[in-house]
């Protein structure tokens, strides 16, 4: 028989679990982003987030309607890190290019968010809307009318999401390097089999498409696009 503890020794109480954090939309989104950072976009689900928060999936639906809304809220959280500069008509072309670069970096900071952005043509969350308004303000500061600014903003948004989506695929391993190496080998063999007389330029273009030229291609596209807008304004 074990002896009882002496009276001057505190009897240990059963270990109590730390109190759960109160559920909120912010907590759900924060948890989803943590899962995304650790396991990738495909691991994020309402069930997985609920499991991480030690609750049932049904509890989440009071704050987030469905997985699609959760995706949009994660995208919105990523875009919250993008600055919203005051338009400066003297340097509006540089501001437009800087804004695109900021948006790409924000999406690439979270594995899979660029995919969400690409699959959500018109996200209507606070930071998404704010970024849309900022871009229109920058474009109009350069002298574009509203229709021109809207069309230009739409084209820039499409390019930004496409670039971030492609770049994220390589950065976060959405593409299997082994498979891509085989595909690249097959592509190289196929291209070499084409008649040089029929495709004299295309057969030399491959050297400009690789990871090393990614940033240069982005800068070229931005420079060409913004130069075109500036020329349009001067007319």
From TrEMBL:
Xref: InterPro entries: Homeodomain-like_sf (IPR009057), HTH-type_TetR-like_transc_reg (IPR050109), HTH_TetR (IPR001647), Repressor_TetR_C (IPR004111), Tet_transcr_reg_TetR-rel_C_sf (IPR036271)
Keywords, alphabetical: DNA-binding, Transcription, Transcription regulation
Pfam families tied to this protein: TetR_C_1 (PF02909), TetR_N (PF00440)
Keyword Transcription regulation: yes
DNA-binding region per Swiss-Prot/TrEMBL record: 45-64
Positions in coiled-coil regions: none
The keyword Transcription appears for this protein: yes
Domain HTH tetR-type: 22-82
Name of the protein this chain belongs to: TetR/AcrR family transcriptional regulator
Protein species of origin: Amycolatopsis silviterrae
Source taxonomy: Bacteria, Bacillati, Actinomycetota, Actinomycetes, Pseudonocardiales
